[in-house]
Amino acid sequence: MSELLLKLECVTAGYAEDIDVLSEVSLTVNRGEVSGLIGLNGAGKSTVVKTICGFLTPKSGSIEFMGEAIAGIAPHQLIDRGISYIPQESSLFPYLTVEENLLLPLQSRPKKFAHLIKERYEEVLDAFPVIRQRRSTQAGDLSGGQQKQVEFAKAWLQLPSLCLIDEPSIGLSPIMAEEVFVWIEKFSRAGMGILLIDHNVRRVVRMSDQVNVLSLGRITASGQREDFQGDLHEQVRQWLGLDF
Ligand SMILES: Nc1ncnc2c1ncn2[C@@H]1O[C@H](COP(=O)(O)OP(=O)(O)OP(=O)(O)O)[C@@H](O)[C@H]1O
Ligand SMILES: [Mg+2]
Q1: Which residues have any ligand 1 atom within 6 Å of their CB?
Q2: Distance, CA 46 to ligand 1 centroid (Å)?
Q3: Which of 122, 140, 159 is the last residue of a domain?
Q4: What is the per-residue pLDDT for 244?
Q5: pLDDT digit string, tens, across residues 202-213
Q6: pLDDT tens-digit map of 42-98
Q7: How many domains does the chain have?
């Protein structure tokens, strides 16, 4: 039986008081599983993750992580609770070094995690040679692909139970994009729950255990991967311009 990690129920949210971008969004992420969130540009996908991460407070509805209400809790506190976020845009401080960017979010971690974090830091240096070579470089001097590696390394070091990953392959070379999906699989195998957003719909469907379709801020279809695979869900076929 899958363990429920994240549960959004009827979440309504937006950037302005009188305009709702999300209307009654419900979705779940289980431990060790990938939940995909797909939708056209402007559908509200990034707004869903920003609301989970505490950048926006829902106007109504509930967000529970491991059975506790988390709506409106500040992003840095959510990191300590086990939620990491790899945003669509860079989250690195360009004038800090790579190493400072990696270690800054870990400062409030209790001492008991120090050993585990040190182990993971060694892993990160092996997994991402660019970090070993350029740990003293300002993050803003790295290429887009290198910065994405630092983002994944940063999330891995935070020991999250849940990782929210928004458009990880956007703007990357095909080779680097492939690599990104290998890391996501690694995160998943390590037991994390993942909420994955990517414009490569087929890829998201292939990687996901559950798939959610967002249209104009509403969930218009959701189900298991099998419901979306093969001939693909009709709604998804329509976006991709596939005729029967
Ligand atoms: N900071 C903001 N202030 C006001 N409106 C915003 C803000 N960010 C996004 N929006 C609006 O909210 C809606 C949903 O945007 P969002 O970025 O969540 O969509 P998305 O599905 O992630 O799109 P994309 O595929 O282009 O990343 C859009 O109409 C957008 O213009
Ligand atoms: Mg987006």
Answers
A1: 15, 21, 39, 41-47, 88
A2: 7
A3: 159
A4: 44
A5: 889 999 999 999
A6: 999 999 999 999 999 999 999 999 999 999 898 888 998 999 999 988 899 999 999
A7: 2
In the prediction, which pLDDT does 235 show? 67
Q: What is the Å distance from ligand 2's center to 38 Cα?
A: 10
Rounded to the nearest angstrom, the distance between the alpha carbon of 87 and the centre of ligand 2 is 9
User: Do both 77 and 103 map to the same domain?
Assistant: no
212 occurs within a structural domain: yes
Considering the entire predicted model, what is its pTM?
A: 0.92
Average pLDDT over residues 166-190: 91
| Pair (188, 146) in one structural domain | no
Q: Which residue is closest in CA terms to ligand 1's atom 7?
A: 15
Domain coverage including residue 124: 95-159
For residue 235, being part of any structural domain is answered with yes
What separation in Å is there between the alpha carbon of 46 and the centre of ligand 2?
Answer: 4
> For a pocket test of ligand 1, which of 11, 15, 198 has the largest count of ligand atoms closer than 8 A to its C-beta?
15
Query: Which of 112, 144, 159 marks a domain boundary?
Result: 159
Residue 43 belongs to a domain = yes
DSSP character string of the chain: -PPEEEEEEEEEE-SBTTB-SEEEEEEEEETT-EEEEE--TTSSHHHHHHHHTTSS--SEEEEEETTEE-TT--HHHHHHHTEEEE-SS--S-TTSBHHHHHHGGGTTS-GGGHHHHHHHHHHHHHH-HHHHHHTTSBGGGS-HHHHHHHHHHHHHHT--SEEEEESTTTT--HHHHHHHHHHHHHHHHTT-EEEEE-S-HHHHHHH-SEEEEEETTEEEEEEEHHHHTTTT-HHHHHHHT---
pLDDT over 70 (residue 239): no
User: Is residue 134 assigned to a domain?
Assistant: yes
